[in-house]
Amino acid sequence: MKKILFVDNSPVMLELMTKLVQKKTEHQVFTANDGLEALDFLKNNIPDIIFVDLIMPRIDGKQLCRLIRNMPNLKKVKIAILSGVAAEENLDPYEIGADYLIAKGPFNIMGKFVLDYIDSSYSENSDELKQNVQGLDYVRPREIIQELLSEKDSLRTLMNNISEGILELTADFRIVYTSPSAPAMLGIRESEALGLFFTDLFSGKDFKRVKQISKSIKYDHQEIKFKTPLKIKDKLLEVKLLPVKKQELRIFVIIMDVTQKVKQEALLRKSQKMEAIGTLAAGVAHDFNNLLMGIQGYTSLILLNLETQDPYYKMLKSIEQQVESGSKLTGQLLGYARKGKYEVNTLNLNQLIKDTSDTIRRTRKQISVKVKLEKELFQIRADKSQIEQVLLNIFINAADAMTEGGTLSVKTKNTDHQHIQNTLYEVNAGNYILIIISDNGIGMDKITLEHIFDPFFTTKEMGHGTGLGLASAYGIIKGHKGYIEVESKKGKGTTVFVYLPALSSGRKNIEEKKVVENRENIMTGTESVLLVDDEEIVRDVGQKMLMALGYKVFLAESGMQAIEIYNTQKNVIDLIILDMVMPEMGGGQVFDILKSISPEVVVLLSSGYSLNGEASAIIKRGCKGFIQKPFNLKGLSDKLKQLIHENL
Ligand code: ADP
Ligand code: MG
After folding, report:
1. Is the C-beta atom of 471 inside 6 A of ligand 1?
2. What CA–CA distance (Å, rounded) separates 386 from 198?
3. d(CA 612, CA 635)
4. Among the bound ligands, the one closest to the CA of 336
5. Whose CA, among 37, 543, 545, 601, lies 20 to 30 Å from 156?
6. 459 C-alpha to ligand 1 centroid (Å)
7. Is the pLDDT of residue 277 over 50?
8. Which residues contact 330 (CB under 8 A, 6 or more apart)?
C-alpha cells in the first residue's frame, strides 16, 4: 500500500482523484490545496508519490518540486506533474525535477494515466524518465492561455532581474515566493524561506515592529514602508509592504539592502561634523593666538627691563608660563583643525617612539611600558613635533586609564592601505606604517568611544582633561594623510591604531639631521622692519618688541598701506613681517604685489593659524619664512636673525 498525495488548488479535482484512486486501489490518499499546504504536510509525512498541479497560488508547482528535490528525506519520493497547461507550455521534466508528466484533459483518460503511473512507478524501468507528456494528444492549445503564460514569463524575468528582493506573503504573513536575490538579503536559503513566517526573520525590536504591522495590515492597496531600516543579522534592510487583494489578501514585500548606504551616510555625517567643528576650532585658536600675542609680547618686554630680584619678576614669569600653556591649547586646537603640517622632514619614527615612551616610563612609575618595533620600518615624512604630540596624547590617555597600574604596549609595523578600513575619508593607496598602542586600563563604553575625537569631550575631572588630546591627534594624523582608529572594551582596555603613509622609496630609517637649537641669548639687530598686521594690539606690541631688539620699525594696518609704504621706502626696508589673514587683502595677495615691486623682497609670514596649505603656497612662491603667533622676544629675534643671515 502506497501513500499518495495530490496537490491541486481545485477542490473538484482533488475530490475526483481521491475517489478514483480509492475505488480502484488500496492506496492511501492525501490532499493539499496548494504548495504551502503540501509543504506543511511533508514536514511530518513521506508519501510515495506526489501528483502536483503546476499553477497554484501560495507556492506554485514548480517551486514545490524544487523544494522537494532539495529535501534529503524525500529523495525516494516520485513526483508526477498534472498540468492544465501542458498544451501551451513546453514542460521539461529535468528542469522541474519531475518523474512523470500528465496533461489534464478528459477525466477518464487522465485518470487512466494516473492509475498506470501508480502501478508502474516502482517497477524496474520506472526510473527512465517519461519524456513525453501523457495525454497530450487529447488537449488542444488555447491562445488565451498562451498569452497568459507568456505574460507570466515576462513578469518572472522581471522579478528575477531587479536588484530589490521580492517576497510574496500570505495573509497570515507566511513566505510563499522569493525572488532570486531575496534569500541572500535575508541571510537564508530559498528552501528555508518558503513557508516561514516573515516575522520570524526578525528579532527584538524589529520583530515587534513587523508583528504590529502584520496584525494591522489593511486590505486596501496602500503601500506600507518601515520608516527606519530593519535589521537581520548584520544587514540593514529597507522594507516596503504592498498588500494586494484579489480573491484573498496577498502581500508583496520589496526589500533593499541598505547596509552599505547607511554606513556611508553615517561616515559622511561624522566627517562633515568634524570638518565643521574644525573650522570653528581654528577660528577660536586664531583669535586666541592674537590675544596671547599681546600678553606674551608685553610680558617679555617688561621682563626685559626687570632685574630678576624685582618683586614682579616671578609673577610676570608665571604669566609667561600661563601664556605658554594657553598657546599649547590653541596649538592642540589648530592640530585638530588640521591647519597643516608645520615642518615636514623624513622621520625616524622608531626613535621618536623610544624617546616619548621613555618620558612616560619615567613620569608614570605605576605602569610598565613595553615597546616592540619593526626593525626595517618604512620611512615616513612628518612633522616631528606634531607626531610627538600625538604619541604623548595617546600615551597619557593610556596612563590615565591605568591609575592602578598596567601595561602600555607600543608596536610598529609595516602595512598597506588595504588594511585600513572604515575611514571617514579617502585613504590613498600605498604603503603605510602602523603604530599600535594598547593599554589594559579601564576602557570605554560605546557612547564614550563615539565621542573621543570631539574637541572638548572628556570624561576626566576639571583640571585633568581638556578633551583636546585625541581631537588634535585626529587632526594631525589626518593632516599627514594618515588614519587613526580606536578600539576599546569597558573594563578591558583600549587599543589605538595610527596609520601614516610611508615614503615610496627606501626602507631603512635614515639618521635625522640634528636640528641645532639656538639657546643663546636674545640677539639684537639694526635693520628696518615693516610690520603689517590688521590687529592694533599686535602692531603695538610687535613694534615695541622690534624696537627693544634694536630694529627700526615701519607699521602698516592693511595690505594696501603696506604696499604704499613699501613702494616709497623699498630702499630702506630690509624685511617685512606680514600677517596672513587680514580683511580685504590677505597676506598672499600682498606678498605677490610686494614681489612684483621688488623680486628680492624678504618677507616673514606670520599667522595665528599654523602653517597651512595657504601659507605653504605663499612660501613656495618665494616668501622666506613663517612665524607662528604668539611669539615671544626670543622667538622673534631668532627668526629675524636667521632670515637676515640667509637673505641679506
Ligand atoms: P582628555 O584626555 O583630555 O580627556 P582626550 O581627547 O585625550 O581628552 O580623550 C577623550 C576621552 O576619551 C577621555 O576623557 C577618555 O574618556 C577617553 N579615552 C581616551 N583614551 C582612553 C584610554 N586609553 N582608555 C580609556 N578611555 C580613554
Ligand atoms: Mg588625553
Report:
1. yes
2. 55
3. 20
4. 1
5. 37
6. 7
7. yes
8. 284, 285, 288, 289, 292, 608
